[in-house]
Amino acid sequence: MSAFPVAPSLQQAYAALVPFIMLVTGLPATQVVQGTINRAAMPENGFVNVQALFRKRLRTNVHYLVDPSDGGTQDLEEGVELVVQIDCYSPAGAYTIGGEDWATLLSTTLRDEYGCAALAPTLSPLYADEARMIPLTDGEDQYEERWSLDAHFQYNPVTTIPQQFADVLGLTMIDVPVPGPP
């Protein structure tokens, strides 16, 4: 646990993005997977995998002083571009809606006011790349259809740090003799 709280965290960004993907694609929660999959079977009937790739600082910090009567803290807001890879895997042998359709839906809605409104206030979509077909060879040496796109978001995590404040100032006037000009 960090000594200083950060909000929204990357987990909160995922918590906003995963329901959005479920809404747009119509997939249930069991078919929208967050992060890399290790030693687990891929969900059947197609799925979408979401993984943060990197974050890039967009600006210097913005400082907000919080009322000293509330404990005296300062909020440091960092503007960040968060790049998320979204992989859409088609259902095996299906010729209905699948990975390419889900990638198109996501790319389109993340480039629209609809995506901005749905993900506010946690994430602000900047843009989404065009989907690309990147086949995957599974454990049985079979090709799986995977459509991938990178979605770029801005989010502004705030770190709260302690801050000392002075609300009373004591002054003592001292008369200092100043010699006049020569």
Describe this protein's structure.
With 182 residues, the chain is α+β, with helices and mostly antiparallel strands. The protein has one domain (6-162): STM4215-like. 19% of the residues lie in helices and 34% in strands. The chain contains three helices and twelve strands; from the N terminus they run βαβββββααββββββ. The protein has helices at residues 10-25, 99-109, 113-119; strands at residues 6-7, 32-34, 47-57, 62-65, 73-77, 80-89, 124-128, 132-133, 136-137, 143-144, 146-155, 158-162. Strands 2, 3, 6, 7, 8 and 11 form a six-stranded mixed sheet that branches. It has a four-stranded antiparallel sheet with strand order 1-12-5-4, with no helix packed on it. The chain has a two-stranded antiparallel sheet with strand order 9-10. Strand 4 (62-65) and strand 5 (73-77) form a beta hairpin. The protein starts with 5 loop residues before the first strand and ends in a 20-residue tail after the last strand.
- Helix-and-strand structural type: alpha+beta
Oligomeric nature of the chains: single chain
How far is the N terminus from the C terminus? Answer: 66 Å
Shape: elongated
